[in-house]
UniProtKB/TrEMBL annotation:
<feature type="site" description="Cleavage; by autolysis">
    <location>
        <begin position="231"/>
        <end position="232"/>
    </location>
</feature>
<protein>
    <recommendedName>
        <fullName>N(4)-(Beta-N-acetylglucosaminyl)-L-asparaginase</fullName>
    </recommendedName>
</protein>
<dbReference type="Pfam" id="PF01112">
    <property type="entry name" value="Asparaginase_2"/>
</dbReference>
<feature type="binding site">
    <location>
        <begin position="260"/>
        <end position="263"/>
    </location>
    <ligand>
        <name>substrate</name>
    </ligand>
</feature>
<feature type="binding site">
    <location>
        <begin position="283"/>
        <end position="286"/>
    </location>
    <ligand>
        <name>substrate</name>
    </ligand>
</feature>
<feature type="active site" description="Nucleophile">
    <location>
        <position position="232"/>
    </location>
</feature>
<dbReference type="InterPro" id="IPR000246">
    <property type="entry name" value="Peptidase_T2"/>
</dbReference>
<dbReference type="InterPro" id="IPR029055">
    <property type="entry name" value="Ntn_hydrolases_N"/>
</dbReference>
<dbReference type="GO" id="GO:0005737">
    <property type="term" value="C:cytoplasm"/>
</dbReference>
<dbReference type="GO" id="GO:0003948">
    <property type="term" value="F:N4-(beta-N-acetylglucosaminyl)-L-asparaginase activity"/>
</dbReference>
Amino acid sequence: MNLFTIIGVLVYYPAVSFASALPLVLNTWSEDFTGATRTAFDVISQATGRGGRLDALEQGLNFCELHQCGGSVGFGGHSDASGEVTLDAMVMDGVTHDVGGVGGLRRVKRAVSVARGVLEHTNHSLLVGEAATRFAIDFLGFEEESLSTPESVEEQAAWVAGGCQPNYYRAFDHCTSSCPPYVLQAPGTRESGTGQQMERWGRVGREEHRPRYSPYVEEGSRQQQQPSNHDTIGMVVVDQEGELACGVTTNGLGHKVPGRVGDSPVPGAGCYVERGVGGCACTGDGDVMMRFSPSARAVMGMEAGMAPQEAAEAVVGSIARYYPDFRGGVVCADAGGGVGAAAWNLRLSFSTQSPATEGVQVYSVTPLGGKRGRAGDVARVS
Ligand code: SD4
């Protein structure tokens, strides 16, 4: 029994069995994020149909966008390397399989409402950057507002004062010691990672495979030291008829390279629903996670007969086989209201509301990763 296993046994939580009843709202994270759960549930308990599902998602996710849940959703919070806050969001309806999304949205606060506008008023699935902003303002009538706050400006100033470290640039001269802009390293001097990283990656057993080191891991380790660490909100709504919809909204990763769009607005990555089967949503290192279409794969797992818990664990495990240091999690619900969640190197929490329980229920997920806990444990917190 190694040290991690011993620690795992010590923090073992008995697995929770979920009482399923519809309608159900399931979303990532807890604390202020539960306001989104409650808001969405209030809507979906009074409504059915596509309008009801999308209203529940939109109003629930708007709650977090406007309350800046965890500092990682909505305006303020994480800015990119140039100091600008941009937003990624999507909505997907399980009945029609319609999707609307925005990536790198600038100067508009309610990104998920713009995503719904893309779904309802275009034949496209994803609009990005300044053009998405123009669509929101010129076609949908959204107000143009700065997404910066004194806190986000201060946080950016501290990062710049610290030499812009860590950052997401690689193989540029001085990118590990000073601020952008950078000059490409001369050919022949490019490195994919430090010797120590390469040694660790070697343990994956795929010599040809050199996963990219992500500062998200470093940033995440710092956050894990704090009592409340949060991330993107991803939500799955199952209405009284068992019909599904999902949505995600985030300001993405702090100090991301300008122009970077994460996993959140990508269908099958940020979230995914399949009629008659279930839906999943993801949080974590989107640059890694989007390479695996994790939400779609977990839903496909459920379609093949897995319980939501089993499907969530399977997909998280698949990512970890390639990227043992990745940090992320997935929450899943089936069309009957069954729930599951799994995380890797991340103290994930999530919340649910349904008629089966009194008010919002909060759960914590013991990471499947070797660092803490025992595979698959989900404990009710409140
Ligand atoms: C992203 N998945 O943009 C998101 C990160 C996250 O707040 O969960 N952050 O990669």
